[in-house]
Write a structure and sequence with these properties.
Lyase 2-enoyl-coa Hydratase, Chain  A, domain 2, 2-enoyl-CoA Hydratase, Chain A, domain 1, binds 3-methylmercaptopropionate-CoA (MMPA-CoA), 269 residues, three-stranded mixed beta sheet, six-stranded mixed beta sheet, alpha/beta, 2 domains
Length: 269
């Protein structure tokens, strides 16, 4: 990596555009380039790949957020100028690799969204497992007006979240969706007042960190693949995954806790 790479507090090599810290079992990764609205340059994407390839050993969930008034302005457009087709493919592949590490990494990821969540920023958000929006968040795919196309896995992940028709509309017409619209269409599953997203995201991440690791593994690795497989394969995969999870000593201990009146009851919140 380049000279600008610094060693962060939790011992991972990250570029200055990313900072990481740890709060208990939750690792917090922050896009930290507010002067460029957290635009994602190659160095940042490589840093994301590095971080999610080897999150801190004791982290059981990652909270992903952005510094400044926007989550992310997407692709750093200054890096686009001279790329030919072959370089463009390599660039898109780099994003795919990095965001696959987010989605299919070691631990679940909660993203906190605020301000602009656009282009590649929205593609990054789509790779997380739980999304929290502050009311200031807004979503757009300005690729159409820039003469480009999504390249960070957006055409794979976003239609599964919001549907092909909405994604077509966003690129073709430059339509922006508000935080409330994003919540209504299932892009996010939590919405908070401005400034409260981090606390909500952290609360959720701390809860996720207390789950049995095998349950979190099943949700991240088995569930999306089961949902995409034909039902016959899906039932077999589910039977295997559920039997593996329930045979784990962690599950046995948790079930015993409940049956012996020590386990948490389900509440209405
Ligand atoms: C940038 C970028 C960027 C800001 N690349 N430098 N993404 C876009 O098309 C979104 C472009 N950005 C914007 O529309 C606006 O900047 C925002 C709505 C996000 C924020 O507006 P604002 O008024 O808060 O900030 P600003 O004054 O526009 O920008 C501040 C600085 O950040 C300024 O640089 P400066 O040197 O003049 O101070 C901007 O040039 C810079 N900046 N956004 C580079 N994106 C894998 S394919 C993914 C394809 C895409 O992501 S396409 C979408 C690209």
């Amino acid at each position: 990596m380049k000279e600008s790479v610094v060693k962060d507090k939790i011992g991972t090599l990250l570029p200055p555009s990313l900072t990481a810290e740890q709060q208990g079992n939750v690792a917090v990764l922050r896009l930290n380039r507010p002067q460029k609205r957290n635009a994602l340059d190659d160095e940042t994407i490589l840093g994301i790949e590095t971080f999610f390839s080897a999150p801190p050993e004791d982290a059981r969930c990652v909270l992903l957020c952005g510094e400044g008034v926007h989550f992310s302005a997407g692709l750093d457009l200054t890096e686009l100028k001279e790329r030919d087709v072959t370089q463009g493919i390599a660039h898109s592949s780099l994003w795919h690799r990095a965001f696959e590490r987010v989605q299919f990494g070691k631990v679940p990821v909660v993203a906190v969204l605020h301000g602009a969540v656009v282009g590649g920023g929205l593609e990054l958000a789509a790779a997380a497992h739980v999304r929290v929006a502050e009311h200031s968040a807004y979503y757009a795919l300005p690729e159409g007006s820039r003469g480009i196309y999504v390249g960070g896995g957006g055409s794979v992940r976003l239609p599964r979240l919001i549907g092909v028709a909405r994604m077509m509309d966003m690129i073709l017409t430059g339509r922006t969706y508000s935080a409330e619209e994003g919540q209504a269409m299932g892009l996010t599953t939590y919405i908070t007042e401005p400034g409260k997203g981090f606390a909500k995201g952290l609360e959720l991440a701390q809860h996720i960190a207390t789950n049995a690791p095998l349950t979190n593994f099943a949700v991240m690795q088995a569930l999306p693949r089961t949902a995409e497989s034909d039902p016959t394969t899906g039932y077999a995969m589910e039977a295997l995954m559920s039997s593996i999870a329930q045979a784990d000593p962690e599950a046995k201990a948790r079930l015993r806790d409940f049956l012996e009146k020590r386990g948490r009851k389900v509440t209405r919140d």
